[in-house]
Amino acid sequence: MLIRPAAVDDPGAIAAVYDHQATTTVATFDLEPQGPDLWAPRVGSTEPGDHLLVADDAGAVVGFAYSSSFRPRPAYRRTRETSVYLADGARGRGLGRALYDDLLGRLLADGVHTVIAVVAQPNPASEALHRACGYREVGVLREVGWKLDRWVDVGWWQKELASDRSVWLT
Ligand SMILES: CC(C)(COP(=O)(O)OP(=O)(O)OC[C@H]1O[C@@H](n2cnc3c(N)ncnc32)[C@H](O)[C@@H]1OP(=O)(O)O)[C@@H](O)C(=O)NCCC(=O)NCCS
């Protein structure tokens, strides 16, 4: 199993993983399949703090993790939101952890200070993964999503990285 930055050929496989979650679970608040176009612009981004990594099993992309802007205003620049999605058959064997360990290392090197994850409830696997990676839950927003015929609560998780860079790498 190889963890690597996404390449130009990967958005279709990434979309297959993500769109299954979008249409069958509350793990993302997208409701419809987004297709490869959601992911293609993230491939090869040179913006510090923005990464898209894939888990490559003998040439097949079976999962991915990415980091993106938390909120657009510039004082949030050294905070990133992170997320991770695996194909059904790829879970429970450390791949989520491997993707996040690689992603968090890159974010630390970039000078990112704080990472945020938004975890719709219930999601014991995601909560366990984030806890194992050093995130802590800092609050719950009640009934902010409506999906699959029910209101959905979201847990807010955060982790401060060790970065004390005073200068953002640009
Ligand atoms: C959440 C997800 C990425 C976890 O990835 P994974 O590869 O299955 O997790 P790992 O095998 O790396 O395990 C990481 C930790 O979580 C724990 N864990 C994994 N699945 C679990 C489950 N179903 N219940 C409880 N704990 C679980 C592991 O024991 C491990 O903890 P440890 O290090 O303390 O032993 C994966 O389940 C997934 O893709 N789910 C669907 C999409 C999703 O919900 N994404 C998150 C959106 S916020």
Question: How would you describe what is shown here?
Answer:
There is one protein chain. The N and C termini lie far apart (31 Å). The chain is an alpha+beta fold and 170 residues long. It binds coenzyme A. Coenzyme A binds next to strand 4, helix 2, strand 5 and helix 3.
User: Which strand order does the major sheet show?
Assistant: 1-2-3-4-5-7-6
Question: Which small-molecule ligands are present, each listed once?
Answer: coenzyme A
The CATH C-level name is: Alpha Beta
Give the mean pLDDT.
95
The CATH architecture term is: 3-Layer(aba) Sandwich
- Gyration radius from CA atoms, angstroms: 15 Å
Helix- and strand-based class? alpha+beta
CATH topology: Aminopeptidase
Share of helix among residues?
10-25%
Write out the CATH superfamily name: Gcn5-related N-acetyltransferase (GNAT)
The tally of domains stands at: 1
Order of helices and strands: EHEEEHEHEE
Protein name: GNAT family N-acetyltransferase
InterPro entries: Acyl_CoA_acyltransferase, GNAT_dom
GO molecular function, one term: acyltransferase activity
Keywords: Acyltransferase, Transferase
